[in-house]
Amino acid sequence: MTDALLAITVLWGFVFIYSVMATMDFGAGFWSMIYINREKTMATNIANRYLSPTWEVTNTFIVALVVAIYSMFPGAAYTLGTILLVPGSIILLLLALRSAFLVFSHIAIEYKKPLTYVSGITGILIPGLLISVLPITHGTFVNFENGQQELNLMKLLSSPNEYAFIGFAISSTLFLSSLLLSDYSKAAGEKEAYLIYRRDAIIIGPISLLMAFFIMLTLKNEARWIYDKMMLDWPLLAVSAGFFLIGGVALFLPSLIKKEIKGMPRVAVVAVTIQYLIASYVYGKAHLPYMVYPDVTIESGFTDPASFRAVFITYIAGFAILFPGFFYFWRLFMKDKRYVKNME
Asked: Distance between CA atoms of 139 and 137, rounded to whole angstroms?
């Protein structure tokens, strides 16, 4: 494995981790908004208790992602910064707005409802804008002239592929978050909230799968180069779909612990996460060697090998320190009954 390939693998790992954690985080904000007036179900309280600690951890990975791009691929950073100036600026604005409102929603009690609505709305807008970066990198909407790069925003906004990705991001955000919140509700012993989030996952899951098919259909027309390369790995795409079915079936299986409650949400969360991992691997592999098609490759944008090794060692050391903390956080968050069941 070359240094550039190792670097892009690390970068794509950050993208996957952030995308999964962020979709669950953003979706929890949306569900908190949706069920804010249904206090008896505890659905909003469940979402808020999940949301409260996770958004801070999630932001760690977006910082790591941005730093990785600029430290490992400085040659591509200029192009990405230029063509993503408009969507990137909107994303940063919404992230800052959402973070501020999440903080103040716990302090300004009299404004909790409007603050929750702002958090929920931005929690849906941000995933759609984030994933819109991917169609831009396909090169269809970027003009390369005289060594300059320019995003054709009007062409992007008229693209079915762009809206397919946005629809997939929103449906995946709601699907993954409802799965995790159903698992969290079950661990907390909140049966009504569990049934609500399980129902949401059952409804939205097939929608996210349809949006994935819509992405492939529009890719075939707008970015044939990546579609053809993805179809070379169609067995892996089939395996990915298989894990999606496992996740769906798990929601209908009898529980091993509480047999009166249908569903094994933790199995569903694991299966669907594996499904997204396999699908993202196929997409990422097909995208190589381009970072922005057709002019920016991982080799042309790569940093000096000596600098990369220094940065790579720093990342290894950093995550060796952080990983035990993340592991402890997860155990506390999902398994400590004193925290999980303290829903006041």
From this structure: 5
What are the backbone angles phi and psi of residue 152, rounded to the nearest 5°?
Answer: -85, 90
> pLDDT, tens digit, for every residue of 274-303?
999 999 999 999 999 998 888 888 988 888
Whether the upstream peptide bond of residue 294 has omega within 30° of 0, thus cis, is: yes
Backbone angles phi, psi at 189, to 5 degrees: 75, 20
Confirm if 180 and 50 have CB atoms less than 8 A apart: yes
Nearest to 301 by CA among 68, 75, 8, 2: 75
CB 182 within 8 A of CB 197: yes
Q: For the whole model, what pTM was predicted?
A: 0.87
Written as one letter, the residue type at 269 is V
Picking from 272, 251, 271, the residue whose alpha carbon sits closest to that of residue 263 is 251
pLDDT at 254: 79
Q: In 3D, which of 300, 251, 339, 248 has the Cα closest to residue 73?
A: 300
Helical packing angle, 191-222 and 43-72, nearest 10°: 40
Contact between 304 and 311 (Cβ < 8 Å): no
Alpha carbon distance 128, 17 (integer Å): 17
Length of the chain: 344
Least confident segment among 98-102, 264-268, 327-331: 327-331
Cβ neighbours of 211 (radius 10 Å) = 20
pLDDT of residue 236: 95
Tokens of 163: 């809206």
Find the mean pLDDT for residues 331-335: 61
DSSP string for residues in 151-215: E-HHHHHT-HHHHHHHHHHHHHHHHHHHHHHHHHHHHHT-HHHHHHHHHHHHHHHHHHHHHHHHH
DSSP string, 223-277: -HHHHHHHHTTHHHHHHHHHHHHHHHHHTTSBPSS-TTSB--HHHHHHHHHHHHH
